[in-house]
Amino acid sequence: MANNVQLGPSAHVDTFARDNLPPGEQWPDFRLAGFDYPERLNIGVELTDRMVAQGFGDHTALIGNGRRRTYKELVDWTNRLARALVENFGVRPGNRILIRSANNPAMVACWLAATKAGAVVVNTMPMLRAGELAQIVDKAKIALALCDTRLMDELVACAKDNRFLEQVVGFDGTANHYAELDRMALTKPVRFEAVATGRDDVALLGFTSGTTGVPKATMHFHRDLLVVADGYARDVLGVTPDDVFVGSPPLAFTFGLGGLAIFPLRFGAAAALLEDASPANMVTIIETYRATIAFTAPTAYRAMLAAMDGGADLSSLRLAVSAGETLPAPVYEDWIAKTGKPILDGIGATEMLHIFISNRLDDRKPATTGKPVRGYEARIVDQDMKELPRGTVGRLAVRGPTGCRYLADDRQSAYVRDGWNLTGDSFVQDEYGYFHFAARSDDMIVSAGYNIAGPEVEAALLTHPDVRECAVVGVPDPERGQIVQAHVVLAPGIAADGDAARRLQDHVKATIAPYKYPRSVKFTAALPKTETGKIQRYRLKQAGPS
Predict the structure, then answer these.
(1) DSSP letter for each residue of 494-528
(2) Which of 40, 149, 401, 480 could, after both became Cys, cross-link 170 (CB 3.0–4.6 A)?
């Protein structure tokens, strides 16, 4: 395919994923030295059966809903589920399977089982509505979805008139095993011959919002999922079998799947999973299970520090990982002052799978993103891809053992140029080689770690009869980094008051994922526009938060 990538053998009978990889000339330059894996590799086996073979069978693998599950139990559980998928639902290698669930052990088990069966998995967040799910199903041509029975409504609504989605099968996200998939799995033997997928077979499609609101599907190989563990988790976090991970990112995000599933399971450690990962619940889990590594955003760390003032015991933590938005220096300094433990800022991207620039336990500074993780190189470039001198703000370009491959998407050529991945972030590199975040290069709104596309929020607002025109921007917020702010021109006769603002906020929450709603609503008689009628969003940003 690309200049330095020859794809190895594939086990996929359904060749959709490989058929829809970007053209070779649009691939990034992959740097794979030091990440050597056999041609046949199944990440589901590596994280379960292989760990039992290495002697971790009786170690706790997953904690959730009040139960601990060992690696041996996880092997048996995933093998039974995989058998049900193949024998009862006809899953063939290369088929895409969508999983809809909050963070719980059953979701991890379904992901691992589908992967063992050779499927390409698409993990999705519980907050997504039918319309958002339909975009994912259509893009990846998904025929089978596995869904926590508590979250069926939106997926069933999506399936009702979708030409691809044929079956929605329920699983029990609690500890009970009462749903259809669980009942089938319980009748199966605990042995399953996992599909001998290739290391270059697509294992995961990670969906990410584009600035237009049309989702992009990032394609990750079985090999990639091990690379992020063997690079970042091993080298930067120094994970050991004694670690217990806890965090708030959804498993549907590659940041969450890495930090709360791949990393712990790769090293015989444990993951404590929370369906509602509020800071208060995270504190409880840390205290109960003596968690050692936390993954969350700066806003949550600030709340956890406040909880310490109320007597919360975070002494079991050995390190904290902050990502999703840049870590403000005051939070960094307060955390170290109060806990005495390191907090590591870093940057990752769904396209890159996980964190590729990070601070280190023995090399960290406030207000700094850090230096490239082993295997990666990064530089600051101008619009013509020429490297800029140190101290100059420019576009962040990165390459290494993982990189962007969009599923059948014209935006591939914008993300990858001259073999480098352009993440859409503006950075500066200082004289000592440290990278510092400056801003997003595009109009993506990043609020409390969530990527939110302004046009998608605008589209939701415009379906409300009270709205004549609107524009959505991100404005700075001390708690969340940015918040969504809507500037609205109301229809004639509608009062511009708090009731109107609440109606529109509730409408957005009901139309798209609730986290995308505008926390600030400003009413205006007219929106600023160019002579050609294009809304001047930069002028709205200058207005600031209300």
Answers:
(1) ---SHHHHHHHHHHHHHHS-GGGS-SEEEE-S---
(2) 149
